[in-house]
Write a structure and sequence with these properties.
alpha/beta, 8-stranded mixed sheet, two-stranded antiparallel ribbon, 42% helix, 21% strand
């Protein structure tokens, strides 16, 4: 892209350049709509964009040459505890298996509007590559939106980047999703981010994550495949390092600002 939004819409493998662009897009989804236009059209070079707001399904869709971008907004950090306390964690039938009822209901409330935006941007030649991203609740909605587009609408999705995502579906859903789209789904987890460990899997609710893990340790170093034991020990180290600092480390590590900063740092380190 020639704008201030470096991005390769045709890449399918993991890309730190694309990860940073999508982290910026996930963060932008939290801004008021009147602040989105100057960034998307004035700074990033998108031809058109639209904001959507239907209950918990909020965010924007934007297009430029060869690219459609769909970004879902998450729950504000100061509302996280109330949101997860009230969320319906029951599993119900979804596109590729059983999924979180609360997340699915939130997506369905705004789905017609999202569909119409994507259809408007697709054009007659279908040449635009569709990329989807989101943070927190937005990451959950991004995952379910991708599943609906793939299974129910047979639409091509180029890639999915998730930041601080909770679990979305059961083992059947996760297995089917990963078989079809796991190689193009990248899920970022920052050290002690508590949301990434919710909902807690049980025999009654066998939740499981999707996609390829990208893990930031307590030093901010980025790992691909890393064992659960390494992550457990690293979370302990992160908690110890944070002792005496204000705020819960599990919430602080969930901030989209931190994810954006960590991806940017990793990109700069890779370019040296």
């Amino acid at each position: 892209m020639t704008s201030n939004f470096p991005f390769d819409p045709q890449v399918r493998n993991f890309s730190l350049v694309n990860a940073y662009a999508l982290a910026r897009a996930a963060k932008l989804a939290y801004r008021p709509p009147e602040h989105m236009g100057p960034a998307l059209q004035g700074e990033w070079g998108f031809d058109d964009w639209q904001y959507f707001d239907q209950g918990s399904a909020r965010g924007f869709a934007a297009s430029q040459a060869g690219l459609i971008l769909l970004s879902f907004r998450g729950t504000k950090v100061d509302h996280l505890e109330d949101w997860f306390a009230d969320a319906n964690i029951q599993l119900e039938p979804g596109s590729a298996g059983r999924v979180h009822a609360g997340f699915q209901h939130a997506l369905l409330r705004g789905w017609k509007e999202i569909q119409s935006l994507l259809d408007a941007y697709r054009g007659d030649d279908h040449s635009h590559a569709l990329w989807i991203t989101g943070h927190s609740l937005g990451a959950a909605l991004a995952t379910l939106a991708t599943a609906k587009l793939l299974w129910e609408e047979q639409r091509v999705v180029q890639g999915l980047y998730l930041f601080g995502s909770p679990r979305v579906g059961d083992n059947v859903f996760a297995t089917a999703f990963d078989r079809r789209f796991g190689a193009q789904t990248f899920r970022f987890v920052n050290n002690n981010d508590v949301v990434t460990r919710l909902p807690i899997p049980t025999r009654l609710f066998p939740y499981r994550h999707v996609g390829r893990l990208k893990y930031f340790d307590h030093h901010g170093r980025l790992y691909g495949n890393t064992s659960w034991l390494h992550r457990l020990l690293d979370r302990v180290q992160g908690r110890v390092a944070d002792l005496g600092n204000p705020g819960a480390v599990g919430i602080k590590d969930h901030h989209m600002d931190r994810y954006e900063s960590l991806v940017e740092r990793s990109l700069h380190a890779r370019m040296k």
